[in-house]
Amino acid sequence: MNDWRNVDYLRHGAVVQKEVYNLLTELDIMNLLTDYNPLLVGTIPLGIQVEGSDLDIICEVHDPVKFKALVVRYFGAMEGFVSESRVIQGIPRTKVNFMAKGWLIELFGQPRQTELQNGYLHMIVEAEILAQMDDGFRERIILLKINGWKTEPAFAKALGLEGDPYEAMLELEKLPWSALHALCHSVQAREQV
Fold first, then answer.
1. Residue 173 above 60 pLDDT?
2. How many C-beta atoms lie closer than 10 Å to residue 118's C-beta?
3. Does residue 93 surpass a pLDDT of 90?
4. Hey, which residues does 190 pair with through a beta bridge?
5. What pLDDT, on a 0 to 100 scale, did the predictor assign at position 2?
6. Which helix (H) or strand (E) holds 166?
7. Pairs from 144-153 (Cβ < 8 Å, separation ≥ 24)
8. What end-to-end distance do the CA atoms of the chain give, in Å?
């Protein structure tokens, strides 16, 4: 598995991943946000991005005012800069969006370790599923995304999961890897019939 904490793995990836690595390096965003334990999550690290993908960076934010002040200081002049904070299900959340070199960047913060946030947990299980499945599965996910599906609903559909796709993917993340491997094997076997 990748060292997700360090975006260096992007340097050795596909052309788009290298482009993202260069952008993140140029903006120095991961270093500027280091006190917030930033993690790049989503389609770019997984290599399943499509046209219009954004860069999702999750952060551990306990003081939204301080976080927003830092972000405004370094990125407030960027095109399309907007930020909002609100409380959802009792958890304060801060979201900041801006454009940089044609990329929409979304910073998302909540008072929870980044490795415990849903965006990271979804990415971890999706990476494991992609590692277990054949290229046809990856292509199906990309095709669903091209047709407007978000990542978690695309995985849930391709795996035949029912209910809320975001919750279903979190449930998969809780499974032992052997059970996840068995699920992937049964999905592939079903597709070959």
1. yes
2. 18
3. yes
4. none
5. 66
6. helix 165-174
7. 145/43, 145/48, 145/50, 146/50, 146/51, 151/42, 151/43, 151/48, 151/122, 151/126, 152/122, 152/126
8. 31
Cα 56 to its chain centre, rounded Å, is: 6
CA 131 to the chain's CA centroid: 16
Give the mean model confidence (pLDDT) for residues 164-173.
94
> Looking at residues 56-79, what average pLDDT do you find?
96
Confidence tier at 76 by pLDDT (50, 70, 90): very high
Any idea what DSSP says for residue 117?
S
Q: Which of 57, 64, 114 is nearest to 86 (CA)?
A: 64
CA–CA separation, 81 and 176 (whole Å): 41
Look at the block and give the residue holding tokens 């008072």: 111
Q: What residue ranges of the chain are covered by domains with CATH 3.30.460?
A: 7-114
CA distances from 104 to 4, 52, 92, 111, 189 (A): 20, 8, 23, 23, 38
DSSP result, 12-54: GS-HHHHHHHHHHHHHTHHHHTGGG--EEESHHHHT---TT--
CA angle 58, 64, 65 (to 5 degrees): 140
Asked if CATH classification 2.60.40 holds for the domain at 7-114, the reply, yes or no, is no
pTM of the model: 0.91
